[in-house]
Amino acid sequence: MKRTRWSASLTGMVLLCAVAFGQQSIQKPELPKNFQRLYTVRPWKEAGKYRNALRLESASGMTIPLWTYSLISQVDNQPYSGMIVGRAPSFHGHRTTAVATLMVPVIFTFADTGTVFDPTITDPCLGQTVVKVVSNSPIFQNVDYTMNGADIGSTQYIDAFQRAEFWTYVAGTPQHSLMGLSVLPAIQVTVPVQDGQTYTGGSCGPLGLMDIDWWDNLVQTTLIPSLAAEGVSTTNLPLFLFDSVVEYQGDPNNCCILGYHSAYAPNGILQTYAIGSFDTSGNFGGDVSVMSHEIAEWMNDPTTGNPTPAWGHIGQQPNCQNNFEVGDPLTGTLLPPVQLNGYTYHLQELAFFSWFYRQRPSIGAGGLYSDNGTFTSDAGPVCQ
Description:
Blueprint: E1 5-9, E2 12-16, E3 38-42, H1 51-59, E4 66-72, E5 79-85, E6 96-110, E7 115-117, H2 130-135, E8 143-147, E9 150-155, H3 157-165, H4 167-170, E10 176-183, E11 187-191, E12 196-199, E13 207-211, H5 212-226, E14 237-243, E15 245-248, E16 255-264, E17 271-278, H6 289-300, E18 307-314, E19 317-323, E20 338-340, E21 343-345, H7 353-357
Parallel strand pairs: 3-16, 6-10, 6-11, 6-14, 13-15, 14-17
Antiparallel strand pairs: 1-2, 4-5, 6-7, 8-9, 12-13, 15-16, 16-17, 18-19, 20-21
Helix pairs in contact: 3-6
């Protein structure tokens, strides 16, 4: 089937409607001027109910590998505990833990215009497919990292961050938490008119907006169950990859969520998943910064319920927040560009465990509180 694509011209962006859709060109309004680059977590409301069961599920291999931490924060003298993907950094048997990551490219057709957003075909502005760029990125390929003066080693970015985050315990050890990538066949999803809109205004193409509640319900009730035949299960991470499609919360003006992660328990067993958009429209940029943000948050807060002393008034949070979401305090703050496989990648800087729990001194690399040294001290007093 011929697919809808966009091309740039001197007179602006021109919609090339596919013959298969039988539609004439439709020019949609530009995005609201106040749209923001945001991320979120879809809280698993029943996480507390399954807390004890999760330890047994992980130990028996029924779900992804998890370890539990407990501490008393120095900022409020309160106890905190949570679960992180991988193996405890303080455990004497340091070794590599691998989590199978099943990338699911999603081909969206937006019913309002018939526009198709397809990460599996060559993008005219990118010069290759989104799937290829992401697969070849530092998220899944090794790069040699030095963070805050510490030689972290050659590894995937999220693993490098987590090694740096717990550097006091893992320096000089073979401790790693790696993503074993497989790319599944693309799935096709049609976004109904009432649940999504196509917008112009980008320098290199359109942007699809869809309601996050509609999409997330589809993920849990239809997509993940239907992907069982492709190997998606509670023991791996399904990662849904979009090309220039983002979410809004309830109203298109409450936009834009570029990625999120969540969890639920079909049949009582933990299933985690993540969503990331790669922007080729020119509205956001940052290529795999979205993926680095969300996968790092999934690894550090897989059940979406790891509590922290409240922090805020920083990054994307103008108020207060009390969870262990390592990307949110530094949303929009990028590491120096990384050249890999002929592409220049942009990764987001991430906040350390010690920043959230106000550990003094920090157990992170260089005694700092983020992986590129932006945070030189912890999150400070409890946010109010």
